[in-house]
Amino acid sequence: LGAVVDRSSRRITFMASTEGGVEIEKVAEETPEKIIKVEVDPLVGLQPFQAREVAFALGLKDKQIGQFVKIMTAAYQAFVENDFALFEINPLSVRENGEILCVDAKVGIDSNALYRLPKVAALRDKSQENERELKASEFDLNYVALEGNIGCMVNGAGLA
């Protein structure tokens, strides 16, 4: 289960697939029909029926449907409240007793939103960042490390 901001539709889009252990890009290329997509209307947010539709499409049954709706709703809330650019639960598995388990998750945070998210900003682990990119960020600059000895300094979008 994952969510991204779809720039073309300008909406949060959830994607899910039963094809575990495979990169979603590979599934999209080889068997796109195995990816379930739901666009969320920003005026009304994620609706329970949308999460149920995904649960049914994934083949979930009985109590699992309610569990999945809670998981997807919580994922949507976290996505919106924290200005995520990406939210992914992978894998989302079903235990022997039928209970749904979120085994691992990752998020991508819009760094331009950190100023209004002090709790999220406090989680930043600067030791995991490129030293030069970190130094540039102190001056509100974006630095992209490239190979070689030539650099570009550009101003504005699309000028490089």
UniProtKB/TrEMBL annotation:
<keyword id="KW-0460">Magnesium</keyword>
<dbReference type="GO" id="GO:0006099">
    <property type="term" value="P:tricarboxylic acid cycle"/>
</dbReference>
<feature type="domain" description="ATP-grasp fold succinyl-CoA synthetase-type">
    <location>
        <begin position="1"/>
        <end position="93"/>
    </location>
</feature>
<dbReference type="GO" id="GO:0000166">
    <property type="term" value="F:nucleotide binding"/>
</dbReference>
<dbReference type="InterPro" id="IPR016102">
    <property type="entry name" value="Succinyl-CoA_synth-like"/>
</dbReference>
<comment type="similarity">
    <text>Belongs to the succinate/malate CoA ligase beta subunit family.</text>
</comment>
<dbReference type="GO" id="GO:0046872">
    <property type="term" value="F:metal ion binding"/>
</dbReference>
<dbReference type="Pfam" id="PF08442">
    <property type="entry name" value="ATP-grasp_2"/>
</dbReference>
<dbReference type="GO" id="GO:0042709">
    <property type="term" value="C:succinate-CoA ligase complex"/>
</dbReference>
<dbReference type="GO" id="GO:0005829">
    <property type="term" value="C:cytosol"/>
</dbReference>
<keyword id="KW-0479">Metal-binding</keyword>
<protein>
    <submittedName>
        <fullName>Succinate--CoA ligase subunit beta</fullName>
        <ecNumber>6.2.1.5</ecNumber>
    </submittedName>
</protein>
<keyword id="KW-0436">Ligase</keyword>
<dbReference type="InterPro" id="IPR013650">
    <property type="entry name" value="ATP-grasp_succ-CoA_synth-type"/>
</dbReference>
<dbReference type="GO" id="GO:0006104">
    <property type="term" value="P:succinyl-CoA metabolic process"/>
</dbReference>
<dbReference type="GO" id="GO:0004775">
    <property type="term" value="F:succinate-CoA ligase (ADP-forming) activity"/>
</dbReference>
<keyword id="KW-0547">Nucleotide-binding</keyword>
